[in-house]
Specification:
The complex is a heterodimer of chains A (161) and B (152).
Chain A: H1 10-16, H2 22-25, E1 29-32, E2 35-37, E3 41-46, E4 56-61, E5 64-69, E6 72-73, E7 79-84, E8 91-98, E9 104-113, H3 137-143, H4 145-159
Parallel strand pairs in A: 2-9
Antiparallel strand pairs in A: 1-3, 3-7, 4-5, 4-8, 6-7, 8-9
Chain B: E1 7-12, E2 17-24, E3 43-46, E4 56-61, E5 65-66, E6 69-70, E7 84-89, E8 94-106, H1 112-116, E9 122-130, E10 142-150
Parallel strand pairs in B: 2-3, 4-9
Antiparallel strand pairs in B: 1-2, 1-7, 3-4, 5-6, 7-8, 8-10, 9-10
The chains are: A alpha+beta (161), B mainly beta (152).
Chain lengths: 161, 152
């Protein structure tokens, strides 16, 4: 799963050259995974310099505006925190980090989605669908579609009693 | 790319689908809602996500069958890359999608990121049940997912 990253206004600084303080301007934030079923945990990471102190992640979205303080020095440098999404309304959230020295720590988004798949069937009359899908067998089933319809009808005839 | 506008109907000429759409969210377990089984001919649109034609992944869900027989997305698994899906929206515009592929996934390994993940392009995901119905649990083990991208 690839984390979505948005470089905030810091990216403009890079474009303008080295007049701005490059080290402070380059901090950015990632959320991994970028998509989580509701109740899942995402890791917020910013490249803020840990020596400047804890970073603060502001999480805003459909039903939420909360701050999460960094708890861990990330493996590759920077700071991270875990965010537990139980009770989150489904939708897309924005994470904005502020470094310990008050500088911009970057922005990223993540999406809270429904859990797992959908219960989208009731078993019909005989309990088989148009797709007897076992992974890669899907294509074969479709190619043999005509034949399968016959099988299905026959089975239906024998089991609906 | 289209602005946000709720979908009203979905037509899939290749498998004879022409169905009304209602907005859905999730049930108390956090799973995607499906339109009521009393109306197996209706498809659902995941209303927390993008609308079809908007940037990102729009998600439609429909039953594969009901106790009475085949339902709206019964033949979803027969779609092939290149097939067309048309979604009529409240603003009167029709978002046209081309199928990229079809997959079957055990529900415990549902491809959440590929379904809901999104990006800059307007994409569509169609979901129904698949596999062999388990009468003991009263459910299907798999989800069939159709992946499509807005036609240009």
């Amino acid at each position: 799963m690839k984390a979505k990253t948005v470089l905030g206004s810091a990216a403009v600084g890079v474009g303008l050259g080295t007049l701005l303080l490059p080290a402070a301007a380059l901090a950015d934030t990632t959320v991994s995974p970028a998509t989580t079923p509701v109740g899942g945990t995402v890791v917020l990471t910013t490249t803020c310099n840990p020596k400047a102190g804890d970073a603060l992640f502001r999480v805003t979205g459909p039903n939420r505006d909360q701050n999460v303080r960094s708890t861990t020095a990330a493996a590759g440098g920077g700071l991270s925190a875990e965010l537990f999404t139980a009770g989150f309304t489904l939708g897309t959230y924005t994470v904005t980090a502020t470094c310990g020295d008050g500088s911009n720590g970057g922005t990223a988004t993540f999406t809270v989605t429904p859990i797992g798949g959908a219960q989208a069937g009731a078993g019909g009359r005989d309990g088989d669908t148009g797709v007897l899908a076992a992974g890669g067998a899907l294509a074969a089933a479709a190619v043999a579609g005509g034949t399968y319809v016959l099988v299905r009808r026959r089975r239906r005839a024998t089991t609906v009693a | 790319m289209l602005p946000r506008s709720e979908p009203l109907r979905v037509a899939i000429p290749g498998i004879g689908v022409d169905a009304d759409i209602v907005p859905v969210a999730t049930d108390s377990n956090g799973a995607l809602e499906v339109p009521p089984l009393e109306h197996p001919e209706i498809a659902g649109w995941y209303r927390r996500g993008p609308t079809p034609g908007e940037a990102g992944n729009a998600v439609l869900v429909g039953h594969v069958d009901s106790l009475r027989g085949p339902a709206v997305f019964f033949d979803l698994g027969r779609l092939r890359p290149g097939d067309t899906v048309e979604v009529t929206r409240a603003d009167g515009r029709v978002a046209v999608f081309t199928v990229d592929g079809v997959g079957a996934y055990p529900k415990e390994r549902f491809p959440t990121e590929r379904v809901y993940g999104g990006g800059a392009e307007a994409r569509l995901r169609l979901i129904t049940c698949g596999g062999r119905f388990d009468p003991r649990t009263g459910s299907y083990p798999d989800n069939i997912v159709v992946f499509a991208t807005a036609a240009r």
